[in-house]
Amino acid sequence: MNSPLLKLFTDPADAWLEIRRAEEDHPQQYLPRLLLLALIPALCLLVGTTTYGWSLAGEDRVRLSLASAAQLAGLLYATTVGGVMLMGVMIRWMSRGFDVQPNLNQCIGFAAYCATPWFVAGVVGLLPMRWLALLALLAASAYASVLLYGGLQTFLRLRKEQAMLFATCVWGVGLLLLVTILVAMILFWSNGLMPEYVRPASLG
């Protein structure tokens, strides 16, 4: 079941062939994987913000109350799943400008598999340090770009020239969507949910 996901990191070219065949035989088979993988960053952030916390100055650490951390985790999960689905909708919409007509399930599935590095990088939420999160985000973004440019041609059966242009369009829209969703999520959580901080939190 998880072989194609593992191959995305070891043999992405072969993985995309397997994923395409699986999607053709069983539409929406990506959905359980998306719902499961999206739990990784949400649950890790829940644990990290309530047990480890983060340092603002000196040795003091700030943690979230369990209720606030649960709100943040739930918001992150919903945002992640919704963002991937919205990206799939955008890929389907942009495909009208190319000589290809993928269905919505295929587009959402492709977006979900491309987002796999971000889901895996979510484990750094266990230690919510800004520099670590930044490094993980940059590494995940770089490899997600590799999957995008390497997989679009295979998954959607595009010509090489089409795939490069289409992938660049998807990359640009994806970056804009990512920034917009993250900013909206942070603003809503900070101003709408009113998080409860626990400080100082000495960890020994």
From TrEMBL:
The keyword Membrane applies. Residues 7-180 form the Yip1 domain. Its main location: membrane. The chain crosses the membrane at residues 34-54, 74-95, 107-127, 133-152, 164-189. This is DUF1282 domain-containing protein. It is found in: Membrane. GO terms for cellular component: membrane. The keyword Membrane applies. InterPro entries: Yip1_dom. It is a multi-pass membrane protein. Keywords: Membrane, Transmembrane, Transmembrane helix.
